[in-house]
Structures are given as structure tokens and as C-alpha cells.
UniProtKB/TrEMBL annotation:
Residues 238-263, 406-482, 623-651 are annotated as: Disordered. This is Ribosomal N-lysine methyltransferase 3-like. It comes from the Eukaryota. It comes from Mucor ambiguus. One of its GO terms (molecular function) is protein-lysine N-methyltransferase activity. PANTHER family: N-LYSINE METHYLTRANSFERASE SETD6, UNCHARACTERIZED PUTATIVE METHYLTRANSFERASE. Residues 411-430, 472-482 have a biased composition (Acidic residues). CDD domains: SET_LSMT.
Amino acid sequence: MSNKLQTLLKWFEDNKIEWDKDALEIKESNGSFGVHAKKSMKKDKPVVKIPKECILSIKTTGIANLLDEANLEGGCPLALAVLYEIAQGEQSPWYGYLQALPEHGEDLPIFWEEQEKDWFHGTEMESAVHNDLIDLEDDYEELIEPLLEAHPYIFSRGTNLDDDPYSFDKFIKISTLISSRAFEVDAFHENALVPFADIFNHSGKNEHVHFETEFDVCDACGQLEYCEHQYLNYLEDSDANGEEGSEDAGWEDEDDDEEEADEDIDDAELAELEGMGMETELPDLEELENAGVDFYNDDDSDDSDEEQKKDTCDMVLDRDVQKGEEVFNTYGDHPNIALLSKYGFCYDDNKNDYVSITEDSLIECCLAITGELLKAENPKASEKEIEKLAIERTRPRWEFFLKNEPTLCPSEDDDEQPEGRDDFDEDCQDDCCGPDSHGDHEGHQHGHAHGHDDEEEEEEEHAHEHEHDEEGGCCGGEEDEEGEQSRPYFINYEGLFEDKLMCLLHIMFISEKKFATFVEDVDNALAYFEELANSQGAEKKTQAVVDLKRNIYQVCRALAEFRRLEYFEDGEWVPVEKDEEERKACAGDLRKYYALTCRISEKKILDRSVQYYSELVEEYSKPATAAGGSSSSSSKKKPATASKKNKKMKL
């Protein structure tokens, strides 16, 4: 056993971290640790309990007050807290834990050579790998350095760059380390380093444990049970609700009631007690104490048999573990772009992968299809006239969607779809655009939430809120004044576009008469989408319905084909099979292996998407029959990869 591991284990013991030493063993391999089972264990068993007093957060660090005053955002305050504690050496309460952290961190793409980053050409990682480093540089320059310079007596910088414990290089290392190891603890601590919990290595599919914590604590002091802040909040709420009478009056009334009750007892029962020959004089307290009476332990108390509730972070078994197995945790349901950029690895056939489509490309496709429709209606119109008409038709529909998007497509987590149903075969579903869309609240028993997050947070890091430019920037396909990227829309693992985009496309291509009713009252739009979702292909296939869906699917196919161009090499589409052969040949080069894994996964998504929507376009290009329709899309086979439960993407 190395000195590093011995020091860590002693620190665990000194800080009252509870773990079953007969069942678990920490092993060291190539400078990193892993947790292994010494015996078989059943699921639902807590195997580690970490007191919140020993976690390292922005509330527990020695510079907590300074960080609170600085009010830094994102991961910067925790990174600075860890740098500060490392700089204190053995004087830090977390020294035994910090000395065991990896010296070099994970091998993340931001540390790769530029020619290695070129492997990400066209993929979701291409912009992310550059943006991540730029974000870190901006954070250090704008947030960290001013704080270091303002408090030189707290942050000793050393005599040269190599000695500076707060250098940019060290900031990058700690920031990436935190990204891969931090847990969301509770409302008070927020993201924090949780000793022992971060020793469990990751498994994407066969994890054994998950992270549990009581999230709902006082956000002012961290108390799990009742505290003065909660009482003050109660008083403020009472005042806000217009309760009559002051708090003091309320207490006085209660005391008066108690006094009256005492008087009733004294008057009514005194004679009875005397008649029974009982003494009414209370026994002397000193005599009781000398007799050995314990005034502090009430055997009749309801809490006598219950241990006081401790606020801990627990690692709990999700499934049975066999003797000799390594016990794995999971980092959550993340796509490869998140796994590789935060944790330094990714894996093949990741069901959470996606491909993004820019808003600008969506606008261009909508304008192009609308232009074709207008050209058919106005064959003598010039190209400029058609372009103007297309913008005039498209703009109000786009604005309507942006204005009513929260109503039409609520952003809360949505329920899973009924088994065997494809969300997008009928373009939209009840939990996307229906008026009664409410998601399940997961509560605060977290799955392993390394870094974040959320998960909901991480896939939107580089997205921004869309604001319509009244001068025409929105529907003209131009970037905003600051040159930011337009908001993305997504194609999921199965090659299907997300619900918001399908909802938008219905609005873009619905008839003028129908759209006028939407503008008149948004409830008409809600009713339309609810009826569409409930019909599941059972509606009459009139020519209007066929034309509408053909236009929608044409846009979807065009978007997937347009996105696929970005993966071209030397002007050609390289088949996925060739990429897989290349990956097999470079198995020893993990960086290239992971880069090709990202590329292969995304190219497969686009292949599935192009094939799926091409078949739908062909199907809806058939004229509607007199009986009421072309063959229903609900009869069309779903993509071969489609699961029975097609979860809506939660990005």
C-alpha cells in the first residue's frame, strides 16, 4: 500500500467516513484508485456514508466568506477554494484527501495538440473543445485574477510562475479535475468535492452504486432539520399573507391559554388530590438529584429509540455485487461530447448521443421550401419577389412560435412515451405540445451527478436564448451583433428530430387559414397539437394533410443532409465502415480512438435520419386517394435502432 493511500485511509477514519471494510477494498493501479468488493452484497445497501462536514465546498473552505462576498458564478469559486486548500499544504483540513488527487488530471481534449483536435472536424466536439479553453481563459482573466490581486495577503503567489499555486495552468488542471469529480450535494453546498464518493470509477451501462443526499436543507446554514432561518422565513411568509396580529401577540395568547389551563387544573384537582391523601408539594430537586434521577434523558420520549438523524452523502447499491468485482458508479446519462470533454473518455453506441442543427440552417430550409410552394402559386414572379414573399410568410409564423414556445412546448421533464410508440411518426405528441404537459419531478435523491450537473445543464453550455431582430436578423439567417451562434435544435440517437422543431415546422407550413386561428387564440394551436397527438395517424389523409407532412419531412431530410456535409473529407462522404476500420487500427492511440468514436456515432445518427425522412417524403409524395388518404405513416417501420420507449431528448 502506497503512502498516498495510507494517508487517505487515515483521513477517512479521522473524519468519520463510514464504510464497510469487510465488504469493500480500495485498490491502487497506475496512480489511480478503484473500489472492489471483498464479498458479495445485495442491492439497496448503503456502502459508504460521508458526513457533509468533511466535504470540500465553497461553504466549508477557509475562504468561504471571501467567496460569498465575491459572488462568483459557475465552477470558478470551487476551483479557487480547492487551489487555496492545496496551497495550505498540511495545514489544510483536507490535506489527507487532496494529496491523493491525481497529479495530472484527466486527459481531456483541451490538452490535446492542435493536429489531434482536427480529428473532431464536423463533430459536436469541434467547437466545444475550442470554446472550453476560451471559457477557462476568460474566467481566469475576468474573475480569478482580480480576486487574487485584491487579496495578496490571502493568496500568496510565490516568486515565479512555477511556484505560483494560483497560476492559469494550475487553474485549468483543478477546473477540469472538479468537472470530473464534483457532486451536486444540496441547496447549501451546491457542487462540491465529496471524499470517497469520487473514488468509484465510471461505468456507462453496468454501474453498481448511486449518490444519495438530502438536497432540501436550509440554503443559508445547511441545516437538515428546523433552523432559525426557516422560522424567520415562516414569519415573513405569514406577514406577506396578511395574517392578523403580531407574532408577539400570538405567543402571548398561547401563554394566556396555558395559564388558564393551569389554573383550572389547580382549582379542580387540588381538592381531589388532597382527598386521596396525596401531597401537593413538589419534591425537592436537590433530593431527586442526590437520589440519581437523570433530568436530561427522558425514557418516555418519542425519540429515545431513534438515533439523531445525521446529514450524510451516501453511496447506495443499485444492484447486487459479486465478490471480486470492481464497484462502479455512473456519471449519468451523458452523450459522448460531455463524457469526453469532462471525463476524458467515451464509448461506442451511446444512446444519449445527438447531432445539433443550427437555427440558421433551419431558417434557410424553411425559406427554401416555402419559396418552392410560392413559386408554384406564382409562376410568373421573379426570384426576388419569391424571396420577399417567403420572408413575409415565414416571419410571422416564426415570431408566433418564439412568443408561444413556453406554452406550446413546456421545458419541464416530460413523461416517457407509451411503449411501442414513436414520438415523431406523427410529428408531435401529447407531452410535447399538449396543454397538460407536466414532467416528473425527480426529487433530490440524486443519481450520480458528476459535474453538474445536470444534467440538463451540460448539453446547453454554448446555446443562447433567441431574441428576434425586428430589422430582419431572425428570419434572414444572420448572426447577432456579437457573432454568437444561433440556438441549436437536435436529432436524437435514433435519427429523429426533437419535438420543438416538429412543432415549429407544423406552424411554418400549416395553411394560412389555420394559422390565422392560432394567432387569434393560442388555445386553438394547443387544441390542434393535442388532436394531432391523440390521433396517432388515425386522422383522414386529405390532400392538405399529405401536403403539410410532405413539406415538413422535406425540411427534416434537407436539414440532415445539410448537416452531413460538415463531415465530408476532401469533398466526399466517408462511409462509417471505413471509419470503423481506421478506429480498429489505432486502438493503441486512445485520443484518436475516442475522436473516431464520436465521429462514427454522429455519422450513424445522420445516416438513420436521412434514410428515415427520405422514406417519409416518398410516402407522402403519393397523392391522396378519394377515400381519404395515402398510406399512414404510422404503418411505416420505425428506424431499426428505435427503442420501445422512445424517450424525448432532455437537453
